[in-house]
């Protein structure tokens, strides 16, 4: 990993937003910096949210001007070296059943230079982390797969993947909470929904959570559809 | 408690308030009214200290009736309205007597009309808001036969009031500020963008508005860029290099490059543009944009001061007498007071 990639920039995002971008491209190192900064910036603004390579601080301009917030962000950035950080240890670990029978599994494996069986082994063997939640409510960006999974999105969009679709691109897996259009390739299906509208905890996942997929067959997945978390189990660590 | 009954409704009438701020980290955009100013105007007209949930009517209204007298007003897009055949003006309060039929027609100018009641619309509360968020599967469009609880009007006999709404219908120039990816567009591309006459395309919803134009796509150096935060007002260039401006129900993170962000004060103008309306962009410096920020509390305080009693023309007097007569009949308890 090229350490030179991590160069924090402070940028505006609307009149009430400051974005701290650690890198332009996705990388484990950028995500580690994001996780660390988001934790340390908590309380600096009304809302602090991590994404793949950036942290958003949404502030109330009637309470604090941009210049003041930017000065505080600069102070925080000056406190440490943001290159070469490791991910903070997870506090929760999920196990999520998946049926790896997506219509584009073969195509995705091929782009990664793997057989279907090898591709599935890697999806199941990698301990993933929730790197960001966004696009749709509750939708996790899970990373990172090995480097050969740095495969592009499709040029054309798939008009519709179902709720629970597991799709892959750019070293990440994404789990759709609802039916959606996507440019990523669908490799599997989960009964777990990361957005549960009526539930007490509508958004079960949190950024930083560790997650590992466990393979089930299609018939078993169908049975899991009736379980509240689609068979997913969350273990608190430490 | 008052019950509002929907006799019939256009295809996209939803309950909206100021939305659910604070859920960006969970992937949920704030949502709420597409034209937030319209809810602030309604609150000012109805004498409220905070905006209330109201009906947002995209393109077309509907017919409504209530079971207790309540004042209401129409803000946002201009929609022809009448109570039992008697016309009701835009941005003024009027009384809806029980059993009378309020008919709100199609939008003559603008896209999103708002029907606000003095006691507010109740309906289902989720994460501190009653706003439908269709992208998230929260709430739904209203349909014929729906019944919705309204807060009681504390003062249905209050004198009619009127407000001159800020002109924002029919398109025009909207101001924007640089965003995290503005620098990825070449100077020439940005200049051409600011020189381009756009028109609002027919494709639009609460998520965003597509703009049409003549000429080459607006390209940028965004190959390999990580998906990043989006905010409402962002002008996103989709894969084909054509702008799509994100509104209240935007996604929170996305991979398409964004050339800048429309400032909050001008977003209602963009949301209200109808298909075919001309739109241009003007780029402000960040400091200029920040200086134009006004909290919604301050906007409401300013609007409350701008509200005037409605001065009636002599030809309205028979209407006035008619309203009093109806009020006397329907209240039916004056002698007991």
Structural class of chain A: alpha+beta
Widest beta sheet: strand line-up of chain A:
5-12-9-10-7-6-13
Helix content of chain A: 10-25%
Total helices of chain A: the number is 5
Q: Describe the main β-sheet of chain B briefly.
A: 9 strands, antiparallel
Draw up the topology in text:
The complex is a heterodimer of chains A (238) and B (337).
Chain A: E1 9-12, E2 17-21, H1 28-41, E3 47-50, E4 54-58, H2 66-78, E5 92-99, H3 105-111, H4 116-125, E6 128-133, E7 140-143, E8 158-161, E9 165-169, E10 172-175, E11 180-182, E12 185-190, E13 210-215, H5 218-224, E14 233-236
Parallel strand pairs in A: 5-13
Antiparallel strand pairs in A: 1-2, 2-4, 3-4, 5-12, 5-14, 6-7, 6-13, 7-10, 8-11, 9-10, 9-12
Chain B: E1 2-9, E2 13-16, H1 36-45, E3 54-58, E4 60-66, E5 70-83, E6 86-88, E7 94-96, E8 102-117, E9 147-150, E10 161-162, E11 172-177, H2 187-195, E12 198-204, E13 208-212, E14 228-229, E15 234-237, E16 243-246, E17 253-254, E18 258-262, H3 267-272, E19 278-283, H4 286-291, H5 296-306, E20 308-309, H6 317-331
Entry summary:
The complex is a heterodimer of chains A (238) and B (337). Chain A is built from five helices and 14 strands.
Tell me what the structure shows:
The complex is a heterodimer of chains A (238) and B (337). Chain A is of the alpha+beta class. Chain A is 21% helix and 29% strand. In chain A, a hairpin with a 2-residue loop joins strand 9 and strand 10 (172-175). The mean pLDDT of chain A is 95. Chain B has 337 residues and is an alpha+beta fold. Helices cover 17% and strands 32% of the residues of chain B. The longest helix of chain B is centred in the C-terminal third of the chain and has 15 residues, at 317-331. Classes of the chains: A alpha+beta (238), B alpha+beta (337). The interface between A and B is large, with 49 and 45 residues.
């Amino acid at each position: 990993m090229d350490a030179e990639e991590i160069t924090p920039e402070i940028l505006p995002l609307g009149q009430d937003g400051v974005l701290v971008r650690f890198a332009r491209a996705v990388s484990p190192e950028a995500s580690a910096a994001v996780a660390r900064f988001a934790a340390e910036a908590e309380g600096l603004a009304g809302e602090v949210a991590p994404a793949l390579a950036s942290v958003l601080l949404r502030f109330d301009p009637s309470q604090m001007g941009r210049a003041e917030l930017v000065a505080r962000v600069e102070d925080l950035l000056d406190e440490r070296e943001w290159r070469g950080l490791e991910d903070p240890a997870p506090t929760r670990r999920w196990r999520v059943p998946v049926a790896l029978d997506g219509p584009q599994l073969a195509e995705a494996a091929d782009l990664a230079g793997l057989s279907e069986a090898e591709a599935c082994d890697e999806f199941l063997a990698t301990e993933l982390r929730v790197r960001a939640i966004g696009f749709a409510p509750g939708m996790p960006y899970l990373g990172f797969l090995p480097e050969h999974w740095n495969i592009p999105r499709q040029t054309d969009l798939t008009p519709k993947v179902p709720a629970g679709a597991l799709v892959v691109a750019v070293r990440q897996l994404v789990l759709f909470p609802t039916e959606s259009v996507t440019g990523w390739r669908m490799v599997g299906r989960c009964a777990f929904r990361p957005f549960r509208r009526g539930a007490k905890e509508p958004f079960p996942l949190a950024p930083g959570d560790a997650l590992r997929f466990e393979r089930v067959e299609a018939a078993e997945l169908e049975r899991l559809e009736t379980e509240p978390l689609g068979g997913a189990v969350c273990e608190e660590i430490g | 408690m008052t019950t509002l009954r929907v006799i019939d409704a256009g295809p996209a009438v939803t309950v909206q308030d100021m939305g659910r701020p604070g859920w960006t980290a969970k992937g949920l955009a704030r949502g709420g009214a597409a034209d937030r100013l319209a809810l602030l105007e309604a609150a000012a007209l109805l004498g409220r200290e905070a905006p209330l949930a109201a009906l947002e009517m995209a393109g077309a209204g509907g017919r409504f009736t209530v079971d207790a007298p309540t004042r209401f007003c129409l803000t946002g897009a201009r929609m022809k309205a009448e109570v039992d055949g008697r016309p009701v003006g835009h941005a003024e309060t009027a009384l809806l007597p029980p059993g009378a039929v309020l008919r709100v027609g199609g939008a003559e100018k603008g896209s999103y009309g708002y029907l606000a009641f003095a006691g507010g619309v109740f309906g289902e509360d989720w994460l501190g808001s009653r706003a439908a968020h269709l992208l998230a599967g929260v709430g739904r469009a209203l349909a014929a036969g729906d019944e919705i609880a309204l807060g009681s009007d504390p003062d249905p006999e209050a004198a009619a009031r009127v407000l001159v709404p800020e002109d924002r219908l029919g398109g025009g120039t909207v101001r924007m500020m640089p965003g995290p990816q503005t620098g990825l567009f070449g100077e020439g591309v940005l200049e051409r963008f600011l020189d381009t006459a756009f028109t609002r395309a027919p494709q639009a919803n609460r998520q965003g508005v597509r703009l049409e134009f003549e000429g080459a796509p607006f390209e940028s150096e965004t190959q390999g860029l990580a998906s990043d935060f989006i905010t409402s007002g962002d002008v996103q260039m989709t894969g084909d290099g054509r702008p799509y401006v994100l509104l209240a129900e935007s996604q929170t993170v996305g991979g398409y490059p964004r050339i800048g962000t429309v400032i909050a004060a001008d977003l209602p103008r963009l949301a209200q543009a109808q298909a075919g309306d001309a739109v241009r962009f003007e780029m402000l410096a960040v400091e200029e944009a920040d200086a134009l920020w006004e909290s919604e509390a301050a906007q409401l305080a300013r609007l409350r001061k701008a509200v005037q009693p409605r001065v009636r023309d002599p030809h309205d007097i028979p209407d006035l007498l008619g309203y009093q007569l109806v009020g006397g009949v329907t209240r039916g308890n004056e002698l007991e007071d």
